[in-house]
Amino acid sequence: MTIQRRQFLRLAVCAGAFPTLSRMASALDYPTRPVRIIVRFPAGGADDIVARLIGQWLSEQLGQPFLVENRPGASGNIATEAVVRAPADGYTLLLASAANAVVYEKLNFTFLSDITSVAGILRTAFVVVVNPTVPAKTIPEFIAYAKASPGKISMASPGLGTPNHMAGELFKMMTGLDMQQVPYRGGAPAVADLVGGHAQIMFAVMADAIEYIRAGKLRALAVTTATRSEALPDIPTVADFLPGYESSYWSGIAAPKNTPVDIVEKLNKEINRALADPTIKRRLADLGASVFSGSPADFGRLIADDTDKWAKVIQVAGIKVE
């Protein structure tokens, strides 16, 4: 009986060690085949550039291809659902962005509870830009200009419920302005129409607008972050004129919920190493962005905070986001 009991205890101890050993093995082996990074928007945009930049680094460091797959449509929710429904094995990742913090009605998933945050990558300001035909050169001048023409100012955005749209709605709430939101299918066509004079103002992602600003085809009035942007150091913040205003665009990597912790930690470590690399930091700076490194929990808190913030804006503004 004693021998049998000792054998049983040894087997029990070994069995208890199996899950730990399995997790260690999965982290050591991962990845053993190509990994997909799904992007919500078409190729060529800022999110696509960031995904390819990080994907190349991960490919070089982890020895397997990290392939970018663009799945635009339904304000990015097609791409997000594809990741939510994927196996939680680390082989399907999402280039998550501030767009994921806007809660749409009638979705088949809940982003906050159906994903695992892996690592932040960047944060960047929106820049408030106007067509040069608009006489305003400052935020107070624009507010006065818009109040003199209620309902006649067109505010371009990449689409209903996008972070750009939300930044504009927050601005409208805090100023009492009556502006008409004009949604486009992406940032590039929205900026193009703004340059063409078909809209008057836009809260643009820095990467979409900065070359037009430098060329004099758009006028920058302010940036939306609490502090000035290194990319446009001479441009004031909206908060300089509207205390308490703040909005930013961010992106990072997310995975399906229940993705093994060791795989998440391995990816987080490598992405943070990438963000410390001078070449990658310089590439992100070229996009007008700064790195947002940290733990998976740090990225998760950013997502949760932004989701709560925009939910309140949607409710107060009476916006229907479907």
Give the SSE order as H and E letters.
HEHEHEHEHEHEHEHEEHHEH
Unreliable segments of 5+ consecutive residues: 20-25
Instruction: Please report the distance between the alpha carbons of the first and last residues.
Output: 67 Å
Strand content: 15-25%
CATH arch. level architecture of the largest domain: 3-Layer(aba) Sandwich
Structural class: alpha/beta
The coarse overall form would be globular
Topology-level CATH name of the largest domain: D-Maltodextrin-Binding Protein, domain 2
Q: What is the quaternary state of this protein?
A: single chain
- Helicity range: 40-55%
Q: Please identify the top-level CATH class of the largest domain.
A: Alpha Beta
Number-wise, the strands total 10
- As for the number of domains, it is 2
The main sheet comes to: 10 strands, mixed
Radius of gyration, in Å, reads: 23 Å
Fourth CATH level, the homologous superfamily of the largest domain = Bordetella uptake gene, domain 1
Q: What count of helical segments does DSSP give?
A: 11
Mean pLDDT: 89
Task: Indicate the topology.
Blueprint: H1 2-29, E1 35-39, H2 46-62, E2 66-70, H3 77-84, E3 92-97, H4 111-114, E4 115-130, H5 139-147, E5 153-157, H6 163-175, E6 179-183, H7 187-195, E7 201-205, H8 206-214, E8 219-223, E9 248-256, H9 261-275, H10 278-286, E10 289-291, H11 296-317
Parallel strand pairs: 1-2, 1-3, 5-6, 5-7
Antiparallel strand pairs: 3-9, 4-7, 4-8, 4-9, 4-10
Helix pairs in contact: 1-9, 2-9, 6-11
